[in-house]
Amino acid sequence: MGQTPRNHQILGCDLPNGYKILVITFIYLSYCSILQVGASIHEYHTESFIRRSNSFFFHGGSEGLYASKPRSENDKLVSEDKPINGKSFIRFESVTFRRTKHSAEQKNAMQQRTGLVEAIILEVRDRDKIGGSYLNSDALCCTPELAKDSSCKVGEVIIHQNLDNPNGPKRLQAFFEGKNEELTMPIQTIEINSTGMYYLYFMFCDPELIGTVISGRTVWRNPDGYLPGKMAPLMTFSGLMSFAYLVLGLVWFLRFVQYWKDIIQLHYHITAVIALGMCEMALWYFEYANFNSTGSRPMGITIWAVTLTAVKKTISRLLLLMVSLGYGVVRPTLGSITSKLILLALTYFVASEALELVEHLGNINDFSGKARLFLVLPVALLDACFILWIFSSLSKTLEKLQVRRSMAKLELYRKFTNALAVSVLLSVVWIGYELYFNATDPLSELWRRAWIIAAFWTLLAYIILVVICVLWAPSHNPTGYAYSEETGDDFDDEEGIPLTGSGVKVAGDLSNMVERKERKTLTAADHLVFGLSEDLEEDKRE
């Protein structure tokens, strides 16, 4: 749906170009807001069939569906006006097939059935029941030879029915009539009475129908709403996380008000991240709730939620980096590093926004693995840059504090470093589990657990934020971790963003500044070229 930003060019561009990219992104967002995009509504726009074995098929969709809820007589009376309540189903709406004119002209106008197209609904566990595998054949369509030895009909898809399992694969048939070029399936609703991952295929066996295309849509629904099965738990999770951010925000606000005279600039950044997290989770909850009730994504809420997610992820990483650089502890300003931080943040925001948009807009199963990889790679590389920069900065900050024997600050940063190291270790372990999960479940048979993958990262980000809130909580004595000139704290750049509203100015005569610059040449150079050098090192490692 969108093009992935080329991060090497963006990192090498100047700030105005970064703003141009940001403007282009929001123009793209405005364009996306006009589109009508469904999710549980699977739409087909003149799609072609693909040949496989001796059949031709089109994948109409796949979703995790829960079984319809059993209803008592009282429930049936209550829900007469809403017959879909508690039901799980797949409904075919205005599904149309159009064959070529050449194919239609070869048929007899008086003949009623001149071409068969079948819709096959199967649960993933029943995939072996499609085709002639049980007949030791690779054919998907019944041939005259197979018809002699089995109960299949020539020209139809082979389905091995199990009389003991009425919830096996279901077949719907539709026929072209005479020389008609177009065939429209009647509106039908197939109720789902067994929980599982369901696949829908449209298939035909007649080679004369080559060139046939499909249009229309199918609607998929779970017992509690239109939200897909693998996404349903995320609505509850988003609500709980919104409440968790609300509790954290309330505790932080009370502390903020209690010690408002001792607030430093870093506290405002922490407040912004908490507010963004609370708004983000609340928007996602309302997005899922609206989607669940209507069957289509509310575009306005979805775009706002996606954008807030990208903004929060960007600012959260900036907060970690600023704390690791010693902002407010060993340096009152970010100096010339500020421009590098802004460029990295803009790049990350654009890449993250593009990925989130494509993941949350469009049909559920229209996101191919190659397209996703194309968008995931820039975000992964930029995350690696953040991690390398964070730990490199932490190492330098700890070294400075050890030299100056600032024991209170040193202990604070050791706790922060340990917490961050544990989070990185957990992230590596979880990435390994995620890769294992995806590799061992190619057909999404474990769809009921898939929501945990995304939920883990949201929960981990919240825990890290709580750790920062605890370590840098407002207090009567902020000088225990705040920057102070009297302690001899040092920083690398003279120009930058002031720490507090009143500003922190570094005074000294010219000779002292020159001497200090000579003493710190190597360190300053490290900071100035860090973003580039770490990128190069990362590329070499990979």
TrEMBL record:
The keyword Transmembrane helix applies. Residues 233-478 form the GOST seven transmembrane domain. This is GOST seven transmembrane domain-containing protein. Keywords: Membrane, Signal, Transmembrane, Transmembrane helix. GO terms for cellular component: Golgi apparatus; membrane. It comes from Cannabis sativa (Hemp). It is found in: Membrane. The chain crosses the membrane at residues 21-42, 198-220, 232-254, 266-286, 301-320, 332-351, 371-391, 412-431, 451-473. The keyword Endoplasmic reticulum does not apply.
